[in-house]
Amino acid sequence: MQTAKRPVHLNLFQIRLPIAGVMSILHRLCGVLLFLSLPAFSWLLHASIADAETWRGIVAWLATPFGRVFLILSMWALLHHLLAGIRYLLLDLDLGVDRPAYRLTAWAVVLAAPLLALLVGVLL
To answer: Are the CB atoms for 122 and 68 separated by under 8 Å?
Structure first.
């Protein structure tokens, strides 16, 4: 009888995923973040249209460092989820399924989303 050596635990910091796997995990993470942030954004929208004073308070809060980080992270999640979703739609149409193309598009999504989020955060 032969016993196989199985890992006792998986060290997730030692597993090296390809860039498409990292992008896929980030796509799922962004989807969860967007879903969990829906109540906060709904409340912000409701409060901002309630009256002018509340709207000025929300604008002032978004100008604080915490508000700016919240805005940039929200934009990153939205942009990453959007760009990765477009990439997956193209893959479903058999566009970019060969090895160099799917790596290149995964890198493009991973790099473009935070850059665009920072650009939007700086411009706002």
So the answer is: no
What spatial distance separates the first Cα and last Cα of the chain, rounded to whole Å?
67
Segment 35-85, tens digit of pLDDT: 999 999 999 999 989 889 999 999 999 899 999 999 999 999 999 999 999
Contacts of 49 (CB under 8 A, 6+ apart): 55
What domains appear along the chain, each with residue ranges and CATH number?
Answer: 19-123 (1.20.1300.10)
**pTM (global) more than 0.90:** no
Measured in whole angstroms, how far is the alpha carbon of residue 15 from the centre of its chain?
21
Residue 121: closest CA among 68, 66, 48, 50: 68
Read off the tokens for 108.
């493009």
Q: What tokens does 94 get?
A: 């058999």
